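User: My instructor asked us to take a sequence, write out its structure as tokens, and then describe one feature of it. I'm not sure where to start. Here is the sequence I was given:
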Amino acid sequence: MANSTESSTKSTSRYAHAWRALRHRNYRLYFTGQSISLIGTWMTRIATSWLVYRLTGSALLLGFVGFAGQIPTFLLAPFAGVLVDRLNRRNLLVCTQILAGVQSLAMAALTLAKVITIHEIIALSALQGLINAFDMPARQAFVIQMVEDKQDLGNAIALTSSMVNMARLIGPALAGIVIAAVGEGYCFAIDGFSYIAVVVSLLMMTIPWAPIRQAAAPMLEQLKEGWAYVTGFHPIRTILTLFALLSLMGMPFVVLMPIFASQVLHGGPHTLGFLMGASGIGALVSALSLALRKTVRGLTTMIQISAAVFGAGLILFGLSSNLVLSLLLMTVVGFGMMQGMAASNTVIQTLVPEDKRGRVMSYYTMAFVGMAPFGSLLAGALAHRFGAPHAIMITGSFCLAGSLWFTTRLKSIRTIMRPIYIEMGIIQSPLGPAMEDHVGNS
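Assistant: Let's start with the prediction itself. The structure tokens for your sequence are:
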């Protein structure tokens, strides 16, 4: 009995590091509030795509709604990044969350009143994109303030990804049930009220007081400084380039899921929820595997592999007309997508200096969300011209090509990152501490 207890204790302690970011009170509050809100967010995403397809039956308009909801982020994210480096990030997030809740409730009111048209959907989607342009860089940059120990930063990002994908698993499945039972409007209403949890969690945080950072340079000059850093630092430039390609070609697969659910797999909103839920399972497994990592070492290899897995999964999904096989492939797609996203985020956040964090993460937001509107239009146009299965196979091929390109850059990236990781104590110098001191003094 004693041996059994001892074994259980060892097993628990072996994985205790997977949750180490939760020892920070502010991050615990954020994790709790955001977990509730993100379920509503995913319900809205599914409900919006199903509503557009129900009203119009158009693959092109599915793509255009995605474009309208994301193009403001592409246009405004760099300016938002400058403001994030200047303003109180928590206060900015409180404002964006309140506005996002109002937007969802407006969608709910119009849908439940049965007066909503494609024009209102496009306008409200654009408003959400405008809010996201400021919310996403602020959210990314705020993580370091919630997790005081930078050694826990990678774990916080992995746990956040786990949270996102747990919501991605629950939200679409719940949305499918709600849409089938009472309609899309109730999904929007649930989402609108779920933002209360995030606002409360943000207000409950105890953030050490710091003076508002006064800009020493005009906004355009700070924009140029951020751009020069991103384009001049080879590891971040290369990672963001690959990430932008994956966002452009791969991630807009979501806008075509209603077509696969109804035309390819001959289902309804439940099928759409199952497909997105399967993607969420894969992404959740990916995020948990990253949370179990004790160090950021090896993440560049995971970026390379995940892009290949993502692309191959999309190609095979385009070839499938069987529901069970499609669900399995969606799991693979979700795993590859999240592994690349979280690994890229962790490496960039580890490398970037604090005074440029908001601006660099705004370019990360541009690569993640900002390229997606063009991808949504492209995916919609390809599906309109060649059909959804062929569109997915074409975009998946580009993701595979991106993985091969990134492979050719790995050696030079690691050469630059190695001394930075040694200085941060992430990896040990092969010379040893004593020899390092001697070299440093010579």
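For the description part of your assignment, you could build on this observation: DSSP finds 17 helices and no strands in the chain. Try explaining in your own words what that tells you about the chain.
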